[in-house]
Design goal:
Number of strands: 0
Radius of gyration: 23 Å
Order of helices and strands: HHHHHHH
Length: 153
């Protein structure tokens, strides 16, 4: 049972590590979207409090964009922060590793394009098997940091 739990935890930790580049890129994209919304000056001469009666569809859409702008920014900021928390959690987990293990994890999961084992081994000057074993040790060490249930015995 213990080996089964460890195998499942390692698989889940690897899935999280595989998501690193996605989290990082999505956080950057959300930051760009926030800038886009903040810098959207397509309307400059409308005062929100001046609405006097029923508006035409085009004006209503314009009013909605202006009135909802702060809410849209908050929504995007919340999403950006969630992605940022996820990729920083991974970075903190990697920071506790020994140098060789860290190098293997960074090359395998945190660089683009993601490298194959033979290329990682060639770049680090070790055998493919040594790199794979270092990755396995590193994943085991990171389980308590990456998984909520990682402290299970």
């Amino acid at each position: 049972m213990k080996d089964n739990n460890l195998a499942r935890d390692k698989e889940e930790a690897r899935t999280i590590l595989n998501s690193y580049l996605i989290y990082k890129n999505r956080a950057e994209i959300k930051a760009l979207e926030i800038e886009e919304v903040k810098n959207n000056y397509d309307v400059t001469g409308m005062i929100i409090g001046e609405k006097t009666g029923q508006t035409f569809k085009i004006n209503n859409e314009l009013e909605d964009r202006i009135v909802n702008k702060p809410d849209k920014i908050k929504e995007l900021e919340k999403a950006r922060k969630a992605y940022e928390i996820n990729f920083k959690k991974i970075e903190k987990a990697v920071a506790v590793l020994k140098e060789f293990e860290k190098d293997v994890i960074v090359l395998k999961y945190m660089t683009s394009p993601v490298m194959q084992w033979r290329d990682i081994a060639r770049q680090l000057g070790f055998t493919r098997i040594a790199c794979q074993r270092a990755e396995d040790r590193a994943v085991k060490k990171m389980i308590p940091l990456l998984l909520e249930r990682g402290d299970r015995k």
